[in-house]
């Protein structure tokens, strides 16, 4: 896998097609009119993309292996690929410098790329094009059901942005799960039917996750990551993510046949030591563009029509991809770069060190974080209502939470990760994206998992030696932010419960919360 860049002589190309690490589709818009005789694809592995936040070993491996596999596939199709490997001695270390180096050698007439998923990267590549007086043609990413412009039109003149309204528009636009102008089964949303727990016996007969043994390319990447990024978070002892389209299609097929029927009912449930459960594990392949969301939803809808999966499961899955995925992308591009700095609650606490080690006595956090560091994965409730909830209640600066999520998860690309973290998880945008802060006491975790069974903390207690930190911090958060939360009608019931507490109890909770905050040293502020 050498760069194939001529070392000492220029190589004239007409169009230089920029392909980023999350654009690994042969049907990408940038490649639609590729001329093998005149054009070349440019790809680059650079330290900057793994170090601007300290990316975990699983995440780095996914990106580098998938990129190398994709470049190999392009070459087998007769496409010229100018590829910078990260371990080459002359690798400049940043995308901007690597592109500038290639431009000077290949002297293209124009740069073409599919719209990137990261505002920072877009600005860097635009700067390179301007510096070389080159046109940079940016084409719509066809791996979405809507464009950023369409989202802006939807948002125009609306006092509030809410997922449900945009989701319904896209259902009507695409015809997915529709009968004429009406939703199939008479309901747009089956969320209330998708909140089941496993009960005391726990999950039974779970299907095995679809995992892949590393081939030669992936083994080379694992060796490189182990040596070059030894001090980065997480482990690479076990790796099985799909890194090619062929593998991604297998994951899709096995999700549809084995897990989709129970996905809806158990999508919010957790269980100690069970990493994969009934979730799809498709977000990484989707975000790398190894899969197209259209084919993913087609497969799910076909399963419904065939009687293989119930409407509650299929609609819940459709809503995540057709609804939420499109919605957060619109929020990101409409409000960047200011969005990344939002901190409506003025949270300033550092992120506890145990987020990087998993070494905590809180059972739910320990399980979610250790799983994350081992596999680069946790499902959405673990992210929202365990790791994210704790950070929100503790008062961690949201930008530090964002950097952690971007670092540790294999599916993390900024367009999807940042709004989910700052908006949905940390409520740092004051409700721009979500209608309320997603807060709960330890009783929620107890209801949705078995984590509390063998934990030293009791979810029903907010003070004392056995008090659950989630419960303590929940009441403390409500009390501290009561005036602001009172303006939100969706918080009225929780505030009523707060007001039933005596002043003495509130003071005891506040003192317990401060003792808890002081008990976890943090060095990564």
CATH class (first level) name of the largest domain? Mainly Alpha
Label the structural class: mainly alpha
Q: Strand tally, please?
A: 7
Globally, the shape reads globular
The largest sheet has its strands arranged as 3-2-1-4-5
Task: Tell me what portion of residues adopts beta-strand conformation.
Answer: 5-15%
CATH topology grouping of the largest domain: Serine Threonine Protein Phosphatase 5, Tetratricopeptide repeat
Quick rundown:
The chain is mainly alpha-helical and 525 residues long. Helices cover 47% and strands 5% of the residues. The radius of gyration is 24 Å and the shape is globular.
Explain this structure.
With 525 residues, the protein is mainly alpha-helical. It has 3 domains: 125 residues, 3-Layer(aba) Sandwich (Rossmann fold); 188 residues, Serine Threonine Protein Phosphatase 5, Tetratricopeptide repeat (Alpha Horseshoe), CATH 1.25.40; 166 residues, Orthogonal Bundle (DNA Cyclobutane Dipyrimidine Photolyase, subunit A, domain 3). It has 20 helices and 7 strands. The strands form 2 sheets. A 5-stranded parallel β-sheet has the order 3-2-1-4-5, sandwiched between helices. The relative contact order is 0.10.
